[in-house]
Amino acid sequence: MATGSAKTVIPHRNKPKTAKPIPKHAEAKTLKRKRGQDDLQKLRTAIEELDPKSADIKKFTDLPLCEATAEGLRASHFEVLTDVQRAAIPLALKGRDILGAAKTGSGKTLAFLVPVLEKLVQAQWTEYDGLGALIISPTRELACQIFEVLRKIGRKHTFSAGLVIGGKSLKEEADRLGRMNILVCTPGRMLQHLDQTANFDVNNLQMLVLDEADRIMDMGFQSAVDALVEHLPKTRQTMLFSATQSKRVSDLARLSLKDPEYVSVHEDAQTATPTNLQQHYIVTPLPEKLDTLWGFLRTNVKSKMIVFFSSGKQVRFAYESFKRMQPGISLLHLHGRQKQTGRLDITRKFTLAKYACLFATDVVARGVDFPAVDWVVQVDCPEDADTYIHRVGRTARYESKGRAVLFLEPAEEKGFLARLEHKKIPIQKVNVRDNKKKSIKNELQSQCFSSPDLKYLGQKAFITYVRSVYVQKDKTVFQFDQLDLDGYAASLGLPGTPQIKFKKGDVLDGKKMKELSRMPVFSDDSDSDFDENGNKKKKEVRTKYQKMAERQNQDVLSSHYRKLLGEDDDKQADGADEDDDFLSVKRVLQDDAEIDAAATGGASATTSIPGIQSKVIKIGETEVVIDSNRKAKEVTSKAKMLKKYMPKGQKLLFDEDGENPRPLYVLQGEDDFQAEGPAEQLRREFVANETVKVAEADLDDKELARQRRKEKRERAKARERGEEVERERGPIAQLEGGDDEDYDPLALLRSLPLAGGGGGDKSDDGEAEAEEPPRKKTKKWFQNDSDVEDERETKKRKKNSSAAGRGKKVIEMGYEPDNLQDLEALAAGLLED
């Protein structure tokens, strides 16, 4: 038998397994990542080969940009490069630091936003890498505008961007800062986050951009910018842009710029402002500025304009006063003291408006792009030529036309025109037509007298303007001693010129102004009686009204200041100016010594006045000397005396003459109280005595109530008996007692019952008790006359039927009885059955 053996096969342990297929989505991601790396490498190569000075670069498509940026620019309709963009973007793409200067409206915003996006794309920046680019703007409005442009051109990117400005919740901003790649901010708010937000890291910052760099680098933001730069890394790319660029070495060293490229495409231009901008100026005295502005608004109601003032208080006063006068054009106002939501809302309204006038300060003078602005009006002279360039740059934006007009005082004309000529700014002088001139001084005066709040704004506007001129550095342009301050105060509608004392070296704010001594002379050294030439100063003559205003009317909202209306018959006798006849004060002060003493709190303030007999009365613990008309009138009012001289909550008793008040309760001395006995025994005795008094008063009250009920029943019975007697007697042919000379024929008539009444019974006090007439219903607004007559007839019928039901007859008279015959006829009718 054949036998066989089975063969065993052992598998090889090192044989490779079959590979699993790669998912399609993972393969697609790999291919996409590879294409992205290839595109990025091509982009970097193109940037290295780019010639920044090539003349072939005219459109955005000629630049080596990533696809996301190119699509965002196409979607936002940006195609052709401007001069500053053509010069700055190629250098920025190569990583160079830039100082960019160009005219207003030339497209500087895109000149730094496009390099910001490309810088982060080349670094392959993600949300986990933290903050990559920081853009700083001097104003909130400009920061909001930059952020909106960034959203438009960066819509295809995956970067996260944020807007950090004041006026919003600091905590909400802090929670989101850690996830932001690009931040647009203002210097103060950004520094606050760097100091207070714990998870905010800027160590990986790639690019720093300062828009309107000359404004950020000046004294207003110097400390904030220096502290902010200390937080930022040194290895970064920095770009500075402005219409008036600063090239000071100290500023560049503070920002750690490395060999910056200076880009100034318009440096060789004939003018520093756009060529399509028509610029004019008007020489107008300070008291006529508002009149000229009003005439300008009335002439250009079909225009869109921005009117610049030097302070926010002037903006508020012009807006509130002109709004009440209704110039025929929509008015808006914008200044730095408004809330952030209000500022954004006003900016939006003015942007969308076709015809409007915006009163504003320099918060919108830089960079803000309002579409289709026809006019820029500068009521107050700007502090320098650079500020003028930025203000007029709000119109004539990027090849559009615009016009600007500047109001100059005669003392400012020569100096400021020289500054403009040095900056290559062409400007022409124009004059106002006589038929367009109109004075609004009377209207403003009327408004200030009728509205204390508007008068308060007028005084604040006056103070802020005077202060702005006083602190200007360029004294050849701003000549403080040439200002007609009295005329300017009158043009604002104020009753007098607010008095301010300036001290050299002081930075005067509202609080310090109130603390300063009230002096009428405006000078650097008011304490001296001699001027700088050694001549004795001529003292200004002050009227009594002005002196009392210095003492009484420091607060324009006081009750006394509200009553400065009407006419004063004794005004001329008191030495008041004839120009102030529309003002009057109810209180006449006697002489200058008393006024000055009252203002300084001296002893002469209580000097007795001729014609008033001085006397002393004691109010509580206070002795009051009656030596003036005011105090003599004051003591006649108990309420005023209590309010002024007595503590609150204390009652007083006066004597029969109304003088010598004393407290209602007088505390007993401690020794006298202890001599009366133990306190507990006194308490028990007091309670027992009061209990007896209460019981006796209760008995008296009950007896009085019983007596009143008894009298009431007796009157009712007497009334019933009188009615029965009248029924038995019947009608009377003639009146008894007619032959008696002393007999009063009307006595019987007075005792007769009237229609609807209860007879002739009288109460204890002698007054006839008559029923209260029914309350008259209120006439509705939709009732007509016929409805009212029908309602009256219905009431009469109800009244007659109710009287007939009680057995009484109602006599209706068509006339009012006014003689004896009419009364006799009425009595005869009442006595009939």
TrEMBL record:
GO cellular component, one term: nucleolus
The Helicase C-terminal domain, residue ranges: 289-444
Domain Helicase ATP-binding: 89-263
InterPro entries: DEAD/DEAH_box_helicase_dom, Helicase_ATP-bd, Helicase_C-like, P-loop_NTPase, RNA-helicase_DEAD-box_CS, SPB4-like_CTE
SMART domains assigned: DEXDc, DUF4217, HELICc
A Gene Ontology molecular function term of the record: hydrolase activity
Principal cellular location given in the protein's record: nucleus
UniProt KW keywords: ATP-binding, Helicase, Hydrolase, Nucleotide-binding, Nucleus, Ribosome biogenesis, RNA-binding, rRNA processing
Enzyme class, UniProt record, top EC level: hydrolase
CDD domains hit by this protein: DEADc_DDX10 (cd17941), SF2_C_DEAD (cd18787)
Enzyme Commission designation: 3.6.4.13
Gene3D superfamilies for this protein: P-loop containing nucleotide triphosphate hydrolases
Compartments (UniProt record): Nucleus, Nucleolus
Region (Disordered) residue spans: 1-38, 519-541, 697-820
Domain notes: The Q motif is unique to and characteristic of the DEAD box family of RNA helicases and controls ATP binding and hydrolysis.
Record family assignment: Belongs to the DEAD box helicase family.
Record's function text: RNA helicase.
Name under which the protein is recorded: ATP-dependent RNA helicase
Source species taxonomy: Eukaryota, Fungi, Dikarya, Ascomycota, Pezizomycotina
